[in-house]
Design a protein that fits this description.
Mean pLDDT: 93
Number of strands: 18
Radius of gyration: 29 Å
Number of helices: 16
Strand order of the largest sheet: 6-10-11-18-17-16-15-14
Helix content: 25-40%
Strand content: 25-35%
Largest sheet: 8 strands, mixed
């Protein structure tokens, strides 16, 4: 828990706030109408400067700016401040004989962290710094907590996540990351609209957890007296819309999974799911490549990027390889198939050095070999396709081989970024697979799909051939901002409460 006891510095600042109130000065001001941000003010000055025939001894009036004080230094009757707003910093030049004795007395009582407004004229100092010669200062908000002198580095990384508000104030590169995230998300939405997709919103609370193999969060609705699940995926609702006649839909929103946390996993995360009627796995494979390339170009990083020291080339077309071919190459077993016997699979798993659990089937052992021994080697963008039917209960079976489904996953720098397939639209086949998943749940697999008879009922009305796609937006942002952890691209990542952590 945070300590409610005030430090001497905090108490000193609160005392000063009370003194200001007693003097009739509002320590927390009202609306302030800025004419320019810090960056706009500098650009405005440079534009006006370029118009001047005479380059010396002039200034540009009528500028109002506001921001947080980051630095303060004084020289007798003159004070220099740097204020920070979202766009950047601007220096303020404040003279006692210009703003007046009483206002200047307030300036002398300002600290780094306080928020002020300033009005005056722009000029360039002898050192060439564009500054504002203040004619009026308005106090907008006093700070009680002092800004930290150092708020970066690995030793403070957890504190930065917990107190993101301070992280954003003092680390401009963090603000840049989240500004770029906003650009990326906007560009993805813009691209989807340009391709004729309609953005929709589906329920966040489900009566049946489905659409992915994951452990859900459970909550309770008091009025209905029923348990509900925070959604692990919007898939089954989006496919109901395809049944209903919408042909190209997407949803870009949060999912929730009650699972572990690491550099690529957070309990709540942002996904985009896309469904296109009359398409298939190959349709959305092409679309996935276009989405990533568009986002990379739009946010300014281009196709050749460096991610955590690895050189990655996003230039189309990306590699496409069958999962079984990767397994054959890694194990040296040329005749490998998903019909492998249990004994052969166990031997192969032991030889590959993967963990073996009692409930592992031959197919699950092969997938483990891929997950633990191959996935991390896929550095350049790679579509891995033709997954085994056993682990893909919502995917359509391949017409030439019933043991596999038309499904792919996208890997970049050894991590999964997207999952997609030709959607299973045979209602009775889907029912049989749900029943098989139900058996797995009864055997102790709490990540297996639940039975959703309403979804079966929807399929029985007929769903056209459909390509479905899910993209991890947080991971995309990580890639395009060179962020090492998902917590670096989520403004307020999940953290263990301090009280629980200290017990």
């Amino acid at each position: 828990m945070y300590d409610a006891k005030l430090t001497s510095t905090q108490q000193q600042r609160i005392d000063q706030i009370n003194e200001l109130r007693n003097e009739g000065i509002a320590p927390y001001g009202e609306r302030f109408d800025r004419t320019h941000s810090s960056t706009e003010a500098k650009s405005f000055f440079e534009a006006e400067e370029a118009k001047q025939e005479e380059k010396e001894h002039y200034s540009i009036p009528n500028v109002k700016v506001a921001g947080r004080i980051m630095t303060k230094r004084g020289q007798g009757k003159t004070t220099f401040l740097h204020i920070l707003d979202q766009s950047g910093q601007l220096q303020l030049y404040i003279r006692k004989d210009v703003i007046g004795e009483e206002p200047y007395a307030i300036v002398k009582r300002l600290y780094a962290g306080d928020i002020i407004g300033a009005e005056g004229s722009l000029f360039k100092t002898k050192t060439g710094e564009i500054s504002l010669r203040a004619e009026k200062i308005t106090l907008l908000s006093k700070s009680v907590n002092p800004l930290p002198e150092k708020f970066h580095g690995l030793t403070d990384i957890e504190l930065r996540y917990r107190q993101r508000y301070v992280d954003l104030i003092v680390n401009p590169e963090v603000r840049n990351t989240f500004e770029k995230r906003s650009q990326i998300v906007h560009s993805v939405r813009q691209f989807m609209h340009s391709k004729g997709f309609m953005e929709v919103e589906t329920p966040m609370m489900h009566s049946i957890a489905g659409g992915a193999a994951a452990r859900p969060f459970i909550t309770h609705h008091n009025a209905l007296d029923i348990d509900l699940y925070l959604r692990i995926a919007p898939e089954l609702y989006l496919k109901r819309l395809i049944v209903g006649g919408f042909e190209k839909v997407f949803e870009l929103n949060r999912n929730f999974r009650n699972e572990g946390m690491d550099s690529t996993h957070n309990p709540e995360f942002t996904m985009m799911e896309v469904y296109q009627a009359y398409g298939d796995m190959n349709t959305v494979m092409d679309l996935t490549e276009e989405i990533f390339c568009h986002a990379a170009k739009t946010c300014g990083v281009g196709y050749n990027i460096t991610y955590q020291g690895a050189q990655i080339d996003l230039t189309p077309a990306w590699r496409r390889v069958k999962l079984l071919d990767l397994l054959k190459e890694a194990t040296g077993k040329a005749d490998l198939s998903y019909s492998i016997s249990k004994d052969e699979a166990l031997e192969l798993a032991k030889k590959s050095g993967v963990d073996i659990e009692p409930g592992d089937t031959p197919v699950k052992l092969l997938v483990k070999i891929f997950d633990e021994k191959i996935e991390h080697t896929l550095i350049q963008p790679t579509f891995v396709y033709e997954y085994p039917k056993e682990i893909s209960p919502l995917s359509k079976a391949n017409k030439d081989n019933p043991d596999i489904v038309d499904r792919f996953e996208l890997f970049i720098n050894g991590k999964e970024f997207a999952n997609a397939f030709s959607e299973l639209n045979d209602s009775e086949d889907q029912l049989e697979r749900f029943l098989d998943q139900l058996k797995q749940r009864e055997s102790g697999d709490d990540e297996a799909h639940m039975m959703d008879m309403d979804y079966i009922n929807a399929l029985r009305y007929g769903m056209p051939p459909t390509g479905g796609l899910g993209i991890g937006i947080d991971r995309m942002v990580m890639l395009l901002t060179d962020a090492p952890s998902i917590r670096d691209v989520i403004l307020f990542p999940a953290m263990k409460p301090l009280a629980a952590k200290e017990q």
